[in-house]
Structure formats: C-alpha cells, structure tokens
C-alpha cells in the first residue's frame, strides 16, 4: 500500500545532491541513526553504475511494553541499496526495514535525477510504502512473547 509520494526540485546540481547523499548520516538532526555500515560496494564495468549496500542502525524511541509484546528491540536495522549512474545523472536509493519485518514491511524509494533543461537543478521523487503482514503473524508473535 502506497502511503506517501512526493516530488521536489533542488536548486543544486546533481553532483552536489548525489555527493550530499553520502554525508547525510550522522547528523544532529537525526540522532536516532547510530551507525552506517557498508556491506557491499562495486562498480558495474559495463554500465559504470556504482552500487552500494548499507546497513543502517537506529536507536528508536519505542515503549518497552511494545517491544515485549511484539518481540522487538529499541535498536532497529534497515537495508539501503544505492545505485549511482553518473553517465545518466541518476541516483536511486531503496531501503527496507529488517527489524519487525515479521509484522510490517516498510520500503522507501528516492530517485534523484538531473534536470535535462537546467543542470543547476535536480529533481527528487520520493515513494514510501508500508504493508502489514497477516494478522496471524501478529497473534503468534504476541502469543510467543507474552502468553
């Protein structure tokens, strides 16, 4: 189920916006992000696309009761895959939750593209999706952790 979709134009070049992507964490506006680990990085020799897979570790403000009920932790993980195509001026990032994915799937896709009519501008497309798992999974988790 699609929850949120948006577009935005940055008045910066694609090279500036794509470089800023690698510097977004850590920062004082997102103190919940406590670690970023690169799992894999390689350049496709044919296309020149740089593909990076990262593990994002977050400290969430989740009530302990919810962690107990649903078998979670206040430390959560997400997987991010970035593909940078410098020839075509495209940066695509997809991320998904690894924690609590037995209850809910959350995915995020962000695509930055150079404005073909003005190289000093960059367009952003953003898509956020969430889908819940079968209610029986929620009941089983509750039963295993609480009853």
Automatic annotation (TrEMBL):
Cross-referenced PROSITE patterns: PRELI_MSF1 (PS50904)
Protein name: PRELI/MSF1 domain-containing protein
Any single GO CC term annotated in Swiss-Prot or TrEMBL for this entry: mitochondrial intermembrane space
Domain PRELI/MSF1: 1-147
Taxonomic superkingdom: Eukaryota
InterPro entries, sorted: PRELI/MSF1_dom, Slowmo/Ups
């Amino acid at each position: 189920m699609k929850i949120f979709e948006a577009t935005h134009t940055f008045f910066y070049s694609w090279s500036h916006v794509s470089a800023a992507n690698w510097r977004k964490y850590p920062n004082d506006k997102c103190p919940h992000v406590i670690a970023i680990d690169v799992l894999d990085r390689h350049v496709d020799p044919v296309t020149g696309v740089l593909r990076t897979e990262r593990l994002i570790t977050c400290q969430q403000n989740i009530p302990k009761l919810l962690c107990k009920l649903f078998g979670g932790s206040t430390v959560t993980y997400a997987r991010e895959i970035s593909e940078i195509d410098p020839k075509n001026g495209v940066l695509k990032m997809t991320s998904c939750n690894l924690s609590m994915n037995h209850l809910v799937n959350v995915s995020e896709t962000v695509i930055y593209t150079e404005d073909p009519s003005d190289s000093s501008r960059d367009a952003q497309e953003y898509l956020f999706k969430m889908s819940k798992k079968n209610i029986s999974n929620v009941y089983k988790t509750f039963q295993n952790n609480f009853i």
